[in-house]
Specification:
Blueprint (H helix, E strand, L loop, with lengths): L1 E4 L5 H5 L7 E4 L2 E6 L2 E8 L2 E5 L3 H7 L6 H8 L3 H9 L10 H9 L6 H15 L2 E4 L2 E4 L10 H9 L3 H10 L2 H6 L5 H8 L7 H10 L11 H11 L8 H11 L4 H18 L5
Antiparallel strand pairs: 1-5, 2-3, 3-4, 4-5, 6-7
Helix pairs in contact: 4-14, 5-11, 6-7, 7-8, 10-11, 13-14
Length: 277
């Protein structure tokens, strides 16, 4: 098994922070599926060990080629984000496959993380192919244009999202998705939102977690609650649009990273049932 040395990186926080949904925690590491690739990564101290892929892919996927210290310094603007960074330092935004991320976040509408994981894994089992690495078994993610049966999509417990998955399957392909990389953030978001089922939050998730548009600041029910508690406690009503605008203006350099830290920090506090220092 090959390895690379890393600094300012925590694999567990990065994988388990709610960005990705198709991984198996096993053998002291993670088996991650990206389209038709199943690879293994684990961290021991300042080294990442990997198998099933190459160094270039690992560095790109895990975001190891960023100036992390500078990035964190730029979002460290108040005590709230400072606590989140201190608690979960080393968490990075991963670079997912755009097509898979699109379906993942369409599935995220009115759903929690276990539900999203169930949906996308069932879609892969129903429409993909079985793949194996070591003693881990997964399924490739269906290619654009191959999920042509909405009834089968619905059988993956996708509910009302099935029609949106079917629409994205018909409208999008890898070539169209690749064009978004050449566009500025606002244009790319506008293009994504032309697809049924992709609203502001879903578009921002896709742009942040697969294209690396750190201007994106996804606003879902979690972030709405967090931002109201931390920044708008004296306001009775505030719209998602105002929260989005505030997040992008307040965390000017990399609001997407600030969103991730606030989301994971608060989620883990609630999960642990206690307030963290």
């Amino acid at each position: 098994m090959q390895n690379i040395r890393v600094t300012d990186f925590n694999l567990q926080y990065s994988i388990e922070s709610g960005q990705i949904f198709r991984y198996i925690k096993k053998n002291n590491g993670y088996y991650i599926t990206v389209r038709d690739k199943l690879f293994f990564v684990k961290q021991q101290g300042d080294k990442i060990y990997y198998d099933g892929t190459n160094e270039e892919f690992v560095k790109h996927y895990l975001g190891l080629d960023e100036d992390y210290k500078q990035l964190i310094q730029q979002i460290d603007v108040d005590d709230n984000i400072k606590q989140a960074i201190k608690q979960y330092y080393g968490m990075r935004i991963l670079r997912q496959d755009p097509w898979e991320a699109t379906i993942n976040f369409i599935c995220s509408a009115a759903a929690n993380i276990p539900k999203i994981r169930m949906n996308v894994n069932l879609l892969a089992e129903k429409f993909g192919k079985r793949i194996k690495l070591h003693d881990a078994v997964s399924y490739s993610f269906p290619e654009p244009g191959t999920m042509n049966n909405e009834e089968l999509i619905r059988m993956c417990k996708t509910g009302f999202r099935s029609k949106y998955i079917a629409a994205a399957n018909m409208i999008l392909d890898d070539k169209k998705l690749a064009k978004l990389r050449t566009m500025p953030y606002t244009k790319a978001k506008s293009e994504l939102m032309k697809v049924p089922g992709i609203g502001s939050k879903v578009a921002d998730c896709i742009l942040l977690f697969s294209y690396g548009f750190k201007e994106a600041f996804p606003v879902d029910t979690w972030i709405t609650k967090i931002m109201k508690e931390l920044y708008f406690s004296k306001m009775r009503n505030i719209s998602n649009r105002k929260i989005l605008e505030f997040g992008q203006n307040y965390f000017k350099a990399h609001p997407g990273y600030a969103q991730m830290y606030l989301f994971y920090w608060t989620r883990m506090k609630n999960k642990n049932g206690k307030k963290e220092d």
